[in-house]
TrEMBL record:
GO molecular function list: ATP binding
Entry-linked InterPro entries: AAA+_ATPase (IPR003593), ABC_transporter-like_ATP-bd (IPR003439), ABC_transporter-like_CS (IPR017871), P-loop_NTPase (IPR027417)
Organism: Paenibacillus alba
Domain ABC transporter: 7-234
Upper classification of the organism: Bacteria, Bacillati, Bacillota, Bacilli, Bacillales
Pfam family, one: ABC_tran
Source organism, top-level taxon: Bacteria
Annotated protein name in UniProt: ABC transporter ATP-binding protein
Alphabetized SMART domains for the sequence: AAA (SM00382)
Keyword Electron transport: no
Entry annotated with the keyword Lipoprotein: no
Keywords annotated in UniProt: ATP-binding, Nucleotide-binding, Transport
Family: Belongs to the ABC transporter superfamily.
Length: 305
């Protein structure tokens, strides 16, 4: 049992046209986390988030939020969640403030909330402008302000930095990172960008083709990126054969012999074996695996993120 989870799903699944687009996904999002839901386009992130928000009905599986089943406590649960899914829904012919008022009526919150939410996303000075005159970044920030309006316990953001320029991305990132500390919020956000999740999230779920491949703390994912050692010699095939007879398991590719998990002593020993056989060793290098390498290992696909 994951009793401390704010969000948990049990075998959450969605089938469209006979294809499982989300399959047996078990998410656990804990209180105060920024949980990054990471996966390439089409992996099933939006579909999963829509099921969490009651916008799409699961084909199978259950969603539990704040310890209660979404299916049977829908409106009380949803009233405590703020969300931004796909493009923000606003009225272009109304000002930012007027849009916030529309949302205020739906949520039944005091005026002070509008002020604070607009301040957080730094739209205070632009609130009397019509939204159709907003830049993409301002529209996105308004979307976040609308999601924040009731200062919900849980904030769900689908690709919150999509379409923003680098400065806008930085701003939204800092804003999101401040929310758990400032307001005790739990944030669940999706992205197809590894770097973004790396910079914001405390935990991560990696999804590909509808399947959850990894879930856990960011540190655990990073620890998978242990360093590896590569050696370059003037006769890699001969050195490889020799080392195989001595209990080492090098991989000979791209002009280097690659070793996983060798300690210092083993490295110097392997080096000595090669040198003593008369093969010159010209490089010994350490490589830190990037998160992208880890992702590619998990998915088994040469797919750019
Ligand atoms: N209403 C629908 N009817 C049929 N297929 C759908 C529907 N919604 C999504 N899909 C399909 O489900 C798969 C997952 O889509 P989803 O939008 O969840 O992916 P995603 O990970 O959010 O990617 P993206 O960032 O591109 O939105 C895709 O192949 C998509 O075409």
């Amino acid at each position: 049992m994951h009793t401390d989870s704010i969000v948990s799903t049990h075998n959450l699944s969605k089938r469209y046209n006979n294809v499982w687009r989300v399959h047996k996904v078990n998410l656990y999002v804990k209180q105060g986390e920024i949980y990054g839901f990471l996966g390439p386009n089409g992996a099933g992130k939006s579909t999963s988030l829509k099921m969490l928000l009651g916008l799409t009905k699961p084909t199978d599986g259950r969603v539990t939020i704040f310890g209660r089943e979404l299916h049977s406590h829908r409106s009380s649960i949803l009233s405590q969640i703020g969300s931004l899914i796909e493009s923000p829904s606003y009225y272009g012919h109304l000002t930012g403030l007027e849009n916030m008022r529309v949302m205020q009526r739906l949520r039944g919150v005091p005026d002070a909330n509008i002020k604070e939410a607009l301040q957080i996303v730094r739209l205070e000075d632009q609130k009397h402008k019509k939204v159709e005159q907003y830049s993409l970044g301002m529209k996105q920030r308004l979307g976040v302000a609308m999601a924040l309006l009731a200062f919900p316990k849980l904030l769900v953001l689908d690709e919150p930095t999509n379409g923003l320029d680098p400065a806008g991305i930085g701003e939204i990132r800092e804003l999101i990172k401040s929310l758990p500390g400032r307001y005790g919020m739990t944030v669940l956000l999706s992205s197809h960008l590894l770097s973004e999740i790396d910079q914001m999230a405390t935990s991560v779920g990696i999804i590909n083709d509808g399947e959850l491949l990894f879930q856990g703390k960011m540190e655990v994912l990073r620890a998978k990126g242990q360093s590896s050692i590569s050696m370059k010699t003037l006769d890699n095939s001969a050195a490889e054969k020799l080392l195989l007879t001595r209990g080492y398991m090098p991989m000979n590719r791209k002009g280097r012999l690659h070793f996983e998990k060798l300690n210092d002593e083993q490295i110097s020993h392997a080096n000595q074996i090669i040198v003593e056989s008369g093969i010159p060793v010209v490089r010994i290098e350490e490589h830190q695996k990037s998160l992208e390498d880890i992702f590619l290992e998990l998915t088994g696909k040469e797919r750019s993120l």
